[in-house]
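Field reference: sequence -> structure
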Amino acid sequence: MITVQDYYEPTQPTLLFSLHPEPAQAIEAGTKRIEYRRRFYHQEPFQAFVHVTGTHGGIGLFLQISQPLVAAPNRLLANLTATDATAIRNYLGNVSQAVALPIRTVIAIPRLTLADLRQVDPQFTAPRAYRFLDKPAQHPLRQFLLQQPGIKKP
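Structure field:
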């Protein structure tokens, strides 16, 4: 059985962040290849588990992110269609700089609910921004997530 561990890169930071269901579905379907954020970790390429928000939410994706790009929103959105750029501009608001996260690899994992996650970490809460799973206190959760079956998406 192929697990997330097979895609894991131990030299890269490992994060956990939250997404709404619609962008998470688009990422899994391969129709969204860049995630835009008002502010986010951007120092180097990283990998991340994605917690999908909502009543049927939970962790369901593992992503490998290429070098994040930091620039003014107009510069980041220059190559998008007008419709896509307008929606993202509305989300970014009037920030002077934003972050584009180029998604290199998408791994789908069976949805892990809040109850599943609290069996490993009784204090688990979904992050509002992001959380590093490389910190010693997060190692049990990271190990649990790495053992999940993973399916690479196109």
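Note: The two ends are 19 Å apart (CA to CA).
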